[in-house]
Design goal:
GH116_catalytic, 37 strands, 5-stranded antiparallel beta sheet, 1033 residues, globular, Non-lysosomal glucosylceramidase, single chain, GH116_N, Glycosyltransferase, 11-stranded mixed beta sheet, beta-glucosidase activity
Length: 1033
């Protein structure tokens, strides 16, 4: 085999189609340019403002959480996720729990228990390569460059570690990756293709907890070789937690929806206490005899049952063998004789797994009888290879002594094939078509259908269990069968989705990588996609409640809809006769609301790996572009849930750290900051963020309205709009009453960090929240204008009713339009300098700062399809963008880092607060989208590239994109939702093309941009209709 350079190998594989030409690429010995570290302490000049809050946080909140309640706080500044530049594309679908992989092949960061991450790699989770010829083992090695293993797995030290890092390569393009191993001494190249079922507009396959590995072996030699790939698996081991201290009993309270009142005095019982900590077995599929593997049913973290399964597919060319259990200890056993104390099966054909999927523990052997890791390694190395054991399983009993120090039991499957020699004696790596080839398929699943949060009130079933409801081992077996039967279809559909972007030569390679790889967070963002099953002894089947109302049932201190803005107060279909000829839009829209809720269930993802709050709305505002583009029904469902939480009033008292005062959890018509904390009870107990009372935040309400408008614009879902209009109007009216002190239509900030920049004080009219408010008013006006238009199917509903203030809807629309025009004038007069909009009009601090995000509201509108000048003069927008470009971007390290949040006139950095001197990835991507729509495509792409290159290549933060980074390599909250905003760039490109060159005052640049974008957008805009939903790809 002739291989001159690493690049030659990858290029040849790319040309053959064996690996992707696009994606994030790294050799195993890759090291980042910058040694990074988590953000620790602010500058001395900034720390003064933190001291009072830090004191209250520590002594009034943090210590109580950790020591008394025995729960994790929603954020913990003392416990940062360490910098590890190791990550690659994670495994699995969306909302099913994730298992990560490192780009060197290791299995790393996992989040199987909701809200809890485990970062320690499991050394037993490996692929092993064995090469034989003529009955002799020539090569036997773990395909990992690591050279040491932890003490608890000392039996693995006898394995042959240390695969050459210089001869292994990685390509990541979510939801797939390719790992290439060169074994030049034996004229072999191995390619491992990792595939997860993440498929846009597919709400079934996309939530499956499974991943497939397809190995292709290329032989350039003149002799056939016997190649064995072995897959060893133990699975993630999250650290056990102490049981939280809380009172789970709920007071008796009758809801207005008619759910019968019951006495709730019994503690939540999720399931009987398991009599095992771990049990294992082998299986051979009855539906597809070619599929066989091993199952490992464990209690992970001593709290959550999870059945792992690994399998491969046999054929006439592939021989399969299985080891249904081995320990990670060094205890030696005879590699060729089974232990004499093993219990035989009841008959020669019995398997430990019954038809119900639950093994009979009396038929399983003790874990003490399982072979050691050393024994299995030596057996695998032998000329005959690993024996196939079809009727043996092991178990670890549930005893206190074993719970404290659980023995480690792992399983293994092997697939062996003969790789034919090259067809030509002169074959080389330069001509893969001449190489002999063989293919081996493996799959891994993690089946944990029932989950719960630390609040211990509600039991949930993961969404995928709608189609795979079987418990334990039987469910894992069915998932494995499905994965190995359907992966080719997954690959075909992924390529159909991605190829219009990947094959377009006008798009730079970095963009193709960034666009798809940033979607990793939908899998690895602590995402949950659930159906509630039971609440305090009541099952969801006993109730007609939609999922979010079932979760919030029996809240004696809360009212779900005090103003009856929705139709949830209507008892049942018998009430329809009281609605005037169907003109009551609340009845109509409630039927729609119920249908979406039952179809989609409950979906949530964490703000960040360190910031454990679900569906943080001020951040989801940026990241939601990914959902509305790829899974629009999910985005609609999230916003509908948010609307329902916004109209709820919850009188529960919370301690707010900012001023050390108590207040209520949520106020009617105040959009929630978040949907709750996994350490509590999400959806039921919203607003886990207690640094400030977020009912006073000025950006949450406008961001909600903007998302409603954008979702309606892109889906044209009229039923969605009908449900949202009364809520949107109520939220705007309450905002005006609370924050517009002089009635000029413009809201004012209150002198504290009352928006997403929660260390950056704002007072009076500010560029950021003021611009969002203008966009909010514009959105509301456009929605009402459409709803009241002559051809609108909604007009009859609105004309026959009034707003909650008994104002006619045409009058509401007229008043909002007047307010918008007034607010636009006030905003421009208060903030425009001639070159940019100052941070705020109140002369306090660096009030003249140049904020990178000053055009956030305008940019969101433009990307969503609003015309130029909708809220701001076009010439002002272009001038502000150029000012940001020169001050916040190009003046800092020649623009190599991207845009910094805060600048000052004279091309200086604003160092007045921590967040002003940070670079926010999501803000960079959003600003790039705005530039593209304003005739600055080259600048927009260059800006986004600088940000992407910093994260993925210079800082080693790939597949853990942080919220923020700084010039010196410090970063904050690795793994964050806001960078999903890169999908606003894709939407901007499509919006720009649809506008056909009329979207900017820069006509020359616009013409050039349109020519560049025409081809890709004609291919990538794939619109399909499903009922009332229009899915925009």
């Amino acid at each position: 085999m002739s291989v001159e350079t690493d690049q030659n190998v990858i290029q040849v594989l790319e040309n053959l189609g064996a690996v992707s030409k696009h994606g994030w690429k790294a050799r195993f010995d890759r090291k980042p340019e910058v040694q990074c570290k988590p953000f620790g302490f602010p500058r001395l000049s900034q720390i003064k403002s933190f001291i009072p809050m830090a004191f209250r946080y520590t002594f009034r909140f943090y210590l109580r959480k950790r020591l008394i309640e025995k729960r994790l706080p929603f954020l913990d500044p003392s416990q940062h996720v360490p910098w590890k530049p190791i990550y690659g594309v994670p495994m699995g679908g969306i909302g099913c729990g994730a298992i990560g992989r490192g780009f060197r092949g290791e299995f790393v960061r996992s989040s199987l228990i909701p809200g809890m991450y485990s970062y320690d790699p499991q050394p037993a989770d490996q692929f092993i390569l064995t090469i034989r010829k003529g009955g002799e083992t020539l090569f036997h090695q773990v395909l990992s460059p690591q050279t040491s293993v932890p003490a608890f797995a000392n039996g693995l030290r006898s394995w042959n570690w240390g695969f050459s890092a210089q001869h292994a390569h990685y390509i990541g393009l979510y939801p797939r990756s390719w790992t290439v191993y060169e074994v030049a001494h034996f004229n072999l190249i191995l390619v491992c293709h990792q595939v997860s079922p993440v498929l846009p507009h597919d709400y079934k396959a996309s939530c499956l907890p499974t991943c497939v590995f397809v190995w292709t072996v290329f032989n350039f030699g003149s002799e056939a070789l016997e190649v064995t790939i072995s897959f060893s698996w133990h699975g993630p081991s999250p650290a056990p937690r102490s049981a939280p201290n809380s009172n789970n009993q709920v007071s008796n309270h009758k809801q207005p929806n008619g759910l019968s009142s019951v006495e709730l005095t019994q503690p939540l019982v999720k399931e009987p206490v398991a009599d095992y900590l771990c049990r294992s077995a082998s299986f051979r599929s009855t539906k597809n005899p070619a599929v066989s593997g091993c199952l490992l049913d464990r209690i992970i973290g001593n709290e959550l049952p999870c059945c792992f399964g690994i399998a491969t597919k046999a054929s006439d060319e592939v021989r399969v063998s299985r080891c249904p259990g081995y320990t990670l200890s060094r205890r030696p056993t005879n590699p060729f004789e089974p232990p004499t104390e093993r219990k035989p099966p009841k008959n020669a054909h019995d398997s430990p797994v019954s038809d119900t999927g639950e093994p009979d523990l009396t038929s399983l052997c003790s874990y003490k009888q399982a072979p050691s890791a050393h024994t299995v390694w030596e057996e695998l190395k032998s000329p005959m290879g690993l024996r196939d054991l079809d009727n043996i399983g092991y178990h670890i009993p549930n005893r206190p002594t074993l719970r404290r120090r659980t023995p480690k039991l792992a399983v293994m499957v092997s697939a062996t094939c003969i790789v034919p020699p090259a067809r030509s004696a002169n074959a080389s790596a330069g001509d893969l078509s001449e190489a002999g080839q063989s293919q081996l398929e493996f799959a891994v699943v993690w089946h944990s259908p029932l989950v719960w949060f630390r609040g211990n009130k509600v039991i949930y079933r993961r969404r995928y269990a709608r189609w795979f409801p079987e418990p334990g081992m039987l469910g894992a077996e069915r998932l494995l069968e499905s994965a190995l039967s359907n992966w080719k279809d997954w690959v075909e559909r992924i390529e159909q989705w991605q190829n219009p972007v990947l094959h377009n030569s006008s798009f730079p390679d970095w963009y193709k990588s960034a666009l798809f790889n940033e979607l990793y967070y939908l899998t690895d963002g602590g995402t949950v996609w659930l159906d509630p099953v039971a609440f305090q002894g009541i099952t969801s089947q006993q109730s007609k409640l939609i999922p979010i109302d079932f979760v919030r049932a029996f809240k004696g201190n809360a009212s779900l809809d005090p103003l009856q803005l929705t139709g949830r107060h209507l008892d049942d279909d018998s009430d329809q006769q009281n609605h005037h000829g169907g003109a009551d839009f609340k009845w109509q829209s409630w039927k729609y609301r119920s249908r979406v809720a039952q179809e989609m269930g409950l979906f949530a993802y964490l703000e960040g790996h360190e910031y454990r709050m679900y569906n943080t709305l001020d951040v989801h505002y940026n990241s939601s572009w990914a959902l509305i583009k790829l899974w629009p029904k999910l985005q609609l469902a999230v916003l509908l849930d948010c609307a329902d939480l916004a109209i709820e009033e919850d009188q529960t008292q919370l301690y707010f750290i900012h001023q050390g005062r108590y207040g209520i959890r949520s106020t009617e018509s105040a959009v929630p900051h978040d949907f709750g904390d996994p350490e509590g009870e999400p959806w039921r107990d919203a607003n886990a963020y207690v640094m400030y009372p977020t009912k006073d935040w000025k950006d949450l309400n406008p961001k909600f309205v903007l998302q409603v408008w954008r979702d309606w614009k892109l889906t044209q879902d009229n039923d969605y709009l009908l449900y949202m209009l009364p809520i949107v109007n109520r939220i705007i009216q309450v905002s005006l009453q609370s924050w517009d002190s002089n009635g000029d239509g413009m809201i004012e900030n209150s002198g504290f960090p009352d928006q997403t920049y929660d260390t950056w004080n704002a007072q009076g009219i500010s560029a950021y929240t003021g611009g969002l408010w203008l966009a909010c008013l514009y959105s509301a006006c456009e929605m009402l204008e459409y709803a009241l238009s002559a051809n609108s199917p909604l007009k009859a509903f609105l004309i026959a009713s009034n707003s909650e203030d008994e104002v006619s809807w045409p009058q509401v629309q007229k008043e909002l339009q007047i307010l918008l025009e007034s607010a636009k004038t006030v905003y421009d007069r208060a903030l425009w300098t001639g070159t940019y909009y100052i941070y705020q009009n109140t002369p306090v601090g660096n009030h003249e700062a140049i904020m990178a995000d000053q055009l956030s509201g305008h940019g969101f509108l433009r990307v969503g399809g609003a015309p130029p000048g909708a809220i701001l003069p076009s010439e002002h927008v272009i001038m502000a963008l150029k000012t940001i470009q020169s001050t916040n971007w190009e003046s800092i390290q020649n623009g190599s880092l991207g845009v910094i949040n805060g600048g000052l006139p004279g091309a200086k950095r604003d160092l007045s607060n921590v967040q002003a001197e940070e670079f926010w990835v999501g803000v960079n991507y959003s600003l790039a989208a705005t530039m593209i729509l304003e005739g600055m495509s080259q600048e927009g792409f260059s800006l986004a590239e600088a940000c992407y290159n910093t994260i993925y290549n210079r800082f080693g933060l790939q597949y853990q994109t942080p919220e923020a980074y700084m010039i010196d390599g410090r970063f904050r909250c690795p793994g964050y939702m806001r960078p999903l905003a890169i999908w606003s760039i894709q939407q901007a490109l499509e919006t720009k093309q649809l506008c056909n060159g009329t979207t900017s005052t820069n006509s020359l640049q616009e013409t050039e941009d349109d020519e560049m974008l025409t081809d890709v957008l004609s291919k990538s805009s794939n619109i399909s209709t499903d009922g009332n939903h229009t899915d925009v790809v």
